[in-house]
Structure prediction request, 339 residues.
Amino acid sequence: NVSPSQRDEVIQWLAKLKYQFNLYPETFALASSLLDRFLATVKAHPKYLSCIAISCFFLAAKTVEEDERIPVLKVLARDSFCGCSSSEILRMERIILDKLNWDLHTATPLDFLHIFHAIAVSTRPQLLFSLPSLSPSQHLAFLTKQLLHCMACSQLLQFKGSMLALAMVSLEMEKLIPDWLPLTIELLQKAQMDSSQLIHCRELVAHHLSTLQSSLPLNSVYVYRPLKHTLVTCDRGVFRLHPSSVPGPDFSKDNSKPEVPVRGPAAFCHHLPAANGCKYASAKRKVEEMEVDDFYDGIKRLYNEENASESVGSVCGTDLSRQEGQASPCPPLQPVSVM
Prediction:
C-alpha cells in the first residue's frame, strides 16, 4: 500500500504543479481531497500513485477552473513528468470516477477556511487592526498558504477538513485579538465539533507550522545603490540608459558581515510614442504593496475589493540631467512570502 510519506510527497508534487500551471488553490485542495478519498477506498500500488495523483489533479482542474485555464491533457502529461501517457490518465480518471460514484463536489478544508474567516472578520472587525497593511483578502491568502502546507501532512488526515480549518483560524486569532477564545467557542458550536479534538488539532497544526517557519532561510539583506546611468534620448522617442560620468554614492564593505550581492537591472529601455520632437514622455508603473500572487487574485473577489491602483510617474517638462542619481528604478523591497 501507499505509505504516509509517499502520500505526502505526491501531495507536495501536486502543489508544485499548481504553481507551474498557474491554477487556483481550490484546484489543489480538491485534487488532494479526491486523492485521499480514492486511497481510502482502494489498496493502490505505489507505482501507480503518480498516475492516480495526476488524474485527480486533472479532474479537479476540469471541475474548478474556467475552460480556458484547464491544462491540455497532452501538455499536462508531458510537462508534469508523471511518467504516464494521456490515454493512461483517461483510463485512471474513469476508475477514480467509478470508485467515487462520480461525486466530485465535496467540501474541502479550504472551503471551510473561507467560511470561518468570513465569520471571524465580520463579527470581530478589530481582528486585523494589528495588521493595517493587510486587507481581509490578503490575510486570507496568507492563511490559505499555511492550510495548503498542512494538507500535505498525513498526520493531520485524522481530522475533518472543517476541524483543520477551524484550528488554523483559531491559532491566527489567538495572535491577533485578546478575546479569541469566545469566538473560537462560537465557531466550534456552529460547526458542531468536539472541543477536545480541536485542542489536539491545534497542537499538531502549531507544531507543523513551526517546522515550516524554522525551515525558512534567513531574511535576505538588500543594499541600496543607485544606478550610475543617465537617461538620454534616441530616435523615435526611445529612451536608453548610458553610463554616467557622475559617480553615484557607494557603500564601504563591512568585513564583519557576509558579503551580500546587490541586485538590480543594469540597463533598461522604454519604447514610447514620439511627440513632435519632444524628448520627454510619461511612464507608468504598477506598484503593489505586498506580493500575494494568485492566492490574493483569486480571493479578493470574496470581499468585493477593487484592484490595486496604479501609480503614474511623469518625467515630462523636467530636466533629465537633474534626475540623475536621485531615483532608482529598483522595485520596492517585498517581504519574504511563505510557500
About this structure: The chain has twelve helices and five strands. The beta strands are 229-233, 238-243, 269-271, 282-285, 311-314. Residues 4-99 form a domain with the Cyclin A; domain 1 fold (CATH 1.10.472.10). Residues 119 and 187 are 8 Å apart (CA to CA).
